[in-house]
Design goal:
Oligomer: single chain
Radius of gyration: 33 Å
Strand order of the largest sheet: 1-2-3
Number of helices: 1
Order of helices and strands: EEEH
Helix content: 40-55%
Structural class: alpha+beta
Distance between the termini: 88 Å
Strand content: 15-25%
Number of strands: 3
């Protein structure tokens, strides 16, 4: 650890390419203290109905996806039949 102007940290040499001569300067990077505790862990209460709501959400999502797929297949079939009809009429 190094100290510069009352700031304790790590000294790193940095090449400044934005200046005309490209100067090498030393910079003190402050040492940060890392805390491993989760501040939200104590404030979040367990939700008893979460699993039921999650299962309902998944079921609604699956039903919606099935309806969308059916609509897409129907629309693609209609477009294919329309394109085949137009092709057959102009081919004659």
């Amino acid at each position: 650890m190094a100290q510069h102007d009352g700031v304790e940290g790590v000294i790193v040499d940095v090449f400044d390419r934005h200046t005309k001569g490209g100067h090498l300067m030393s910079v003190v990077l402050p040492q940060l203290q890392i805390v491993a505790t989760d501040p939200l862990a104590s404030t979040v209460a367990a939700d008893a109905g979460f699993d039921g709501r999650w299962a309902a959400w998944i079921a609604r999502g699956r039903a919606h996806e099935q309806r969308v797929r059916q609509k897409v297949v129907f629309c693609l079939a209609a477009v294919a039949i329309g394109a085949a009809t137009v092709y057959a009429l102009f081919r004659l």
